[in-house]
Amino acid sequence: MGKVDVKKKSSLWKFLLFSSVGFFLFLIPIPYSESFTIPVGILIDMVKSVIHEYTLLPVVLLIIINASLTVITKLFKPAIIMNNGWMKRTFDTTPLYIVSRIIGAVFAVMFYFKVGPEAVISDITGAVMFDLMQTLVSVLIVISFLMPLLTEFGIMEFVGILVKDVVRPLFTVSGRSAIDLVTSWLGASSAAVLLTKQQYDKGFYTGREAATIMTNFSFVSVPFAYIVASVLKVEDYFTQFYLICAASGLLIAMIMPRIYPLNKIPDEYNPKTGKQIDESIPEGKTRLQFAFESAAERAAQTTAHDCLSQGVDMFTSIIFTLSPVIIAWGIISLILVEFTPVFSIIAYPMGLLLKLLGITEPVAAPATLVGFADMFIPPLMLAGVESLRTRFIVGAATLLQLIYMTEVGIIILQSDVPLGFKDLIIIFLERTIFALLLVTLFTKLVLGF
User: What are the residue ranges spanned by the domains of the chain?
Assistant: First the structure.
């Protein structure tokens, strides 16, 4: 009996120690560079400052090697690849990903050697995407190896059990998703999506829950929101700007799971792992007791080797599968935005809605849709608009769209979560409409314009 108690105490301390470190790294904002950000964000900046200028060639080579091995696997199915679990998963892929990797490799060669159409290699297309990809390398190096502190030592179970009865009625997801929301709001939206992907892969979220969390809880961080506010020249109203975004975002997160397409996604766990979660409280135990016991039990199952191998697997799988897709479709999206009238044409219906809301500037309608390509394009388009009201409302609304294909969208499509490209388009449009309506209402109530 004594040994059992010692083991339980050891597991409890393991949960408290490692989860506290993870909580601090991912969720506690500290002063940094005239603002506040989480320690993981600071570590990412530090890694980026050291390696960023050296990562272009490795990224280009990785994309070329990836495309080459994918084509070889498709044509010849070599035993060395087909008999290796990781290599088979990575290189024996679908036709869409084969095409994406080939396009990504062609773009990578063109950009690195500065040959080919200006639309591909210019500072507003290729340079933007390769800079984003180089930044993602720094993000993944840090996130991949530190995320287990947040997911593997019990804090997800602890928080999930405590807040289940509040979170599920509001957002129709498990209580542990509260960690995703806070991670996103205080850190990076890509980190929250990667966290959700991992939790679905391990059987802690159903497909519907993971889809709901990814498309509703992946809000941009406070520091990035401030950068956007500065570009929009509304930083003097930043407190109101962010609170309006937060209030609107929470309301949208309550609505979206209850309408198509999210409400039609099966509430089923990943078939590869099955259900690995139980937040129901046994008889004779308080909620707090059960939360501590579940957290300690989870911590007891985790080893240093598990964390390291998980980090390596996460980094390699994402960097191999994501890099060519980001480059291929990111550059194509930016070409459509910068060199064609496509977004201006398809934004016509959005222009009608904006007129009803009293927003008439010509650039406003396209700005509501180009965010589907990349989150930073709308504020850049709106920066020169004279009307403060237009910059404030449309800028805030674009922050609430969340489905940015160059980052969040690509990660979602690359994952096993049951969301397709069509679903992302519908969700993006729904979020845009709700965001415009709610932000306009709250702006009128709070600021009077």
Answer: 2-198+286-330, 222-265+343-447
- Helix/strand/coil for 37: strand
SS3 449: coil
The structure tokens 């409409």 sit at 433
Q: Which of 280, 263, 262, 232 is nearest to 392 (CA)?
A: 232
CA–CA distance, 307 with 143 (Å, rounded to integer) = 12
Phi, psi of 401 (to 5 degrees): -70, -40
Q: Tell me how far apart the alpha carbons of residues 74 and 238 are, in angstroms, rounded to a whole number.
A: 51
Q: For residue 136, is it left (φ>0), alpha (ψ between -120 and 50) or beta?
A: alpha
* Both structure tokens of 429: 């449009």
Q: CB–CB of 367/382 below 8 Å?
A: yes
By C-alpha distance, which of 425, 148, 137, 420 is closest to 306?
148
For the segment 305-332, what is each residue's pLDDT rounded down to a tens digit?
989 998 898 888 778 877 888 888 888 8
pTM attached to this predicted model: 0.72
DSSP annotation of 281: P
Strands 35-37 and 30-32: antiparallel
